[in-house]
Description:
The chain contains 16 helices and 2 strands. The protein has helices at residues 2-7, 11-17, 19-39, 46-71, 79-96, 101-124, 130-149, 164-167, 170-174, 182-200, 202-212, 214-219, 224-250, 261-271, 283-302, 307-331; strands at 154-155, 252-253. It has a two-stranded antiparallel ribbon.
Amino acid sequence: MATIKTTVPTRQAVFGRGAAQKLLAFAGLIAIFIVFSLASPNFFTFENIIGILLATAVNGVLALGVTFIIITAGIDLSVGTVMTLSAVMTGVFVTFWGLPIPIGVLAGLLTGTAAGFVNGLVISRMRVPPFIATLGMMMIARGLSLVISGVKPIYFNDTPIFRQITMGSAIGAVIPGFDIPNAVFILFGAALVAAFILAKTVLGRYTVAIGSNEEATRLSGVNVANWKTAIYALGGAFSGLGGVMIASRLNSAQPALGAGYELDAIAAVVIGGTSLSGGEGTILGTIIGAFIISTLTNGLRILSVPQEWQMVVTGSIVILAVYLDIIRRRQK
């Protein structure tokens, strides 16, 4: 441990370096809110704000897992289809086998964790590049989702309480009129857990250490392969949670869903200030990035901007975020 501290930047230094980009991202989010509020009276309404929060929930949870992986200088292209596979397995346990909902939720979480674990093994033990390994898992998860579901959606009509996991409103039952979906609180709860893991646990410290200097961390006596596998498994667990959430929100497991979610998750992480070079990143920045993407999409949709132009805007922002990170690193 003492050796690691001499070769790896302190947590304060890591978080401080990303503070400027995180602040810039937050200022950008506020600016987006102001622009769309002035452009359309339908934007800054309670119903639309709830819609933005709900739209951010699943992508935000996926982005939390991707944050850990990108901090290690890795990548995970499979989060979208692993989310779908987790949703399908939840449907199998709850609908096909008639097991209790908590068992189905656990099955979804474990499915995501197992997929992440396999990614970690392939990357750390077989030395397959993360891009290729997770690309393979993306196709495997998509294929398994179609095979297990029989290429048909799995509905939760016999268990209406399942939809209440995300679309119910615990706070609305206590405070009438504040019908904020439970999915929003699940997102913020998951973010708190992720922030605690990153900032206060050994796994979080090794995540930053591996991304800062993997070889130095290995020479310090750390079993990098085991910890990297654990990090990818953690990322998979967040994908599993996203699968349960999307299944609850749609009241069904859609086996063809999932493509494109990984891009939004990665974009949220990058916009939030996590460096693709590894070694630095924050959970708060990721949440801000996720809100920027969902707010942009919502605002452009309200202004009747075609979907293809929405993608152009999002892609441009991602390029700008990466370019700012490159400039910041050059200045250091």
